[in-house]
Design brief:
This protein is α+β, with helices and mostly antiparallel strands and 267 residues long. The protein contains 11 helices and 15 strands.
Length: 267
């Protein structure tokens, strides 16, 4: 009986170890290809959603263009490798990074504590915050969270990113609808099917330029919150060091600002 009891305890301990390993694999930090493996493969894999202009936008031909495609090409060139763009989605961004589908996520990624817990962020590329975009006739009305968070207000959000998080955390009374495609979501407001979208300020300004006289950033005195945008990568000190060195130089030379301005030009 004693030997059976010991065996039972050993088996139980084994299953605990296996379960713990499974948890680490499922929820641990993103430690996939280090910089040495990226260079050995000859390819840098960059994840882009293709739905967040001017950072990345998928066209009718399925080609993704934008400021961060330009920056990704520059990074790959600096590392001495070729670029492979890997399409992803905001709701899959974390799982795709952890599953080693790409080495670094670009395209307007906001720095959040949960993302920082599972991968490394580069030095910030810019500072931003949430602002409402509305029909121009409403730009002086929806200027605060309480003004938006009313039962009659129709709010539209895209799934899986910080816009949806903001809506869930702050808009308890408004009619919140999740629109599946961030490339067409602003047409919901322009077409009168929604009233407001709370999104990153850079996107609100860009979409207002694309819809002159129709969509406008609401006249808020300040953004509703503040956060950095950066590039999110697998956890490898050598990779982060290389990305930070390249990006610091690019920012100092005005390369990121130039790429963003060119991508945001809607003439």
């Amino acid at each position: 009986m004693a030997s059976v009891s010991i065996l039972t305890r050993l088996c139980g301990a084994w299953w605990v170890i296996c379960f713990a390993c499974a948890l680490v694999m499922a929820f641990g930090s993103a430690e996939a290809r280090p910089l040495s493996a990226i260079k050995a493969s000859g390819t840098l894999r960059v994840g882009l959603t293709g739905d967040y202009a001017p950072y990345s936008l998928r066209g009718p031909d399925d080609k993704i263009t934008g400021a961060d495609v330009t920056m990704a090409e520059s990074l790959a060139h600096t590392l001495g490798v070729t670029l492979e763009i890997v399409p992803t989605a905001w709701k899959n961004l974390a799982s795709d990074l952890q599953a080693d589908r790409f080495d670094i996520a670009m395209g307007g990624v906001s720095v959040t504590p949960d993302r920082a817990a599972t991968g490394d962020f580069s030095v910030p590329v810019m500072r931003d915050g949430k602002r409402p975009i509305v029909r121009c006739g409403d730009k002086d009305h929806y200027v605060s969270v309480p003004a938006i968070d009313a039962p009659a207000v129709r709010v539209v959000v895209n799934p899986g990113g910080t816009n949806e998080r903001f809506a869930k955390a702050n808009l308890k009374n408004a009619q919140v609808t999740v629109h599946p495609d961030n490339r067409t979501i602003f047409e919901e407001i322009a077409g009168g099917r929604a009233d407001v979208m709370v999104t990153d300020g850079a996107e609100a300004d860009y979409q207002a330029r694309r819809h002159p006289g129709v969509l406008c950033p609401a006249a808020v005195p300040d953004t509703f919150d503040h956060f950095d945008k950066a590039y999110w990568m697998t956890r490898d000190p050598a990779l982060k060091s290389a990305v930070d060195a390249w990006l610091t130089q690019s920012l100092a030379a005005g390369e990121y600002q130039k790429a963003l301005a060119e991508a945001a030009d809607v003439r």
